[in-house]
Amino acid sequence: MQNLLTIAGRQFRSYFNGAIAYIIICFILLVVGFYFWETFFLYRRATTRELFSLMSLINYFALPALTMGLIAEEKRTKTIELLITMPVSEAQVILGKFVGVLGLYAVLLALTVPYPMSVSSLGELDWGPVFAGYVSLFLQGSAILALGLMASSLTESQITALFITWSFTIVFFLIDKFLPLAPLSIAGLLEFLSFDAHLDSMRRGVIAMRDLIFFTTVTAIGLMVAFRALESRRWS
Questions:
Q1: Is 83 helix (H, G, I), strand (E, B) or coil?
Q2: In this prediction, what percent of the chain has a pLDDT beyond 90?
Q3: Do the Cβ atoms of 133 and 49 come closer than 8 Å?
Q4: What are phi and psi of 154, to 5 degrees?
Q5: For the packed helices 127-153 and 158-174, what is the interaxial angle rounded to 10 degrees?
Q6: Which of 40, 43, 114, 120 has the highest CB neighbour count under 10 A?
Q7: Would you give the distance in Å from CA 171 to the centre of its chain?
Q8: Whole-model pTM over 0.85
């Protein structure tokens, strides 16, 4: 556990040693803040559903930038060879990297809390859907970050890792958009594989077990593939 926390802390601090964390956080907060408040008064009621919709849409494209160098950069600079020969397991490396980037994402979510607080000062806000909305964003973010870590473990190029992750996230984003064209035999499967189908129910304040299982499974698969990819280097 100590090794895992050490790796996670090192990864978390590394984001703030450069500009990437500040750029991505500021970009997301500015874009979400602008579009949220631009349309907020059109609804004529205290609601944050649009906030969570905007955040989830931006996550598909912004979060892969946080993960593209997690393993790929280590492999490019050969520091991964030193890391895996140290008294740490591949699982600790993968989980440590994941916890580190997930911590940064948690900071980003925390910085958006003033938005619903401001809404509550303008009207009577139902905090149930707000809580469910943050749960949905956290689960979505965890899944995307795990997929990004997986992609980063498969290549030495950060750009390649970025585009691999974008490919996955775009598929999960668009898959339910083709439901009207899909045969009835697979329509249910396509809807189940859609991130948005699960996020929509949570944004309404309903946290169903199927949604928790789905995002947890996607996250676990991403981490398992990343673990296997890193483990294979020990025997290559």
A1: helix
A2: 36
A3: yes
A4: -95, -5
A5: 140
A6: 40
A7: 15
A8: yes
